[in-house]
Amino acid sequence: MPRPEVPSGAAEQQAHSVALLFVCLGNICRSPTAEGVMRELVRREGLQEWITLDSAGTGGWHVGDPPDARATSTARARGIVLEGAARRVRASDFEDFDLLLAMDSSNLRDLQRLAPDEEAAARVRLLRDFDPASNGELDVPDPYYGGPGGFEEVLDLVQAACVGLLAQVRKGAGL
Ligand code: 4NP
């Protein structure tokens, strides 16, 4: 794929690819939603060859399951497709991904415990850290045991954060 145009002033910067892993507890609601939202943003900007995306869970109860039907239908109403089968975070994720994006502070703590060293732990971030309007409230609340409003809220929060995340990633990777 031809190298995307680099913004003026950064002409010497070499563009490089980036791999992002979205992580929640079950990998059936929030993290597949974030993956689907980001995939759509990346597709719209023509960056599919440069940005690799996946999602995983810290827990193993839903391994192999498709995304939750409530998450899938809420996303579909916004033109976003959720796909894939749930998997658990694995040690190689810390080698394969540049950023591991936790949906809440509990996921963040779990990932930091799993990180093999400080360099890897520093690549674990809260997704909502990238939302310029997050105002210090940085969790994407777990919608699993709540009503349909929770899934709409997840999409609102994730969409705002992913726009900010993509802007930062583009800047950092010269894309
Ligand atoms: P997620 O939601 O972490 O956003 O995928 C959950 C899904 C399942 C469970 C908890 C949260 N569970 O306890 O089974």
Structure description:
The chain is α/β, with parallel strands linked by helices. It has one domain (18-173): Response regulator (Rossmann fold). Helices cover 38% and strands 12% of the residues. The chain has six helices and four strands; from the N terminus they run βαβααβααβα. It has helices spanning 30-44, 69-76, 93-96, 105-114, 118-121, 148-173; strands at 18-24, 51-57, 99-102, 124-126. A four-stranded parallel beta sheet has the order 2-1-3-4. β1, α1 (30-44) and β2 (51-57) form a beta-alpha-beta unit. It starts with 17 loop residues before the first strand and ends with a helix.
How many strand segments?
4
Mean pLDDT: 94
Shape: globular
Succession of helices and strands = EHEHHEHHEH
**CATH-defined superfamily:** Response regulator
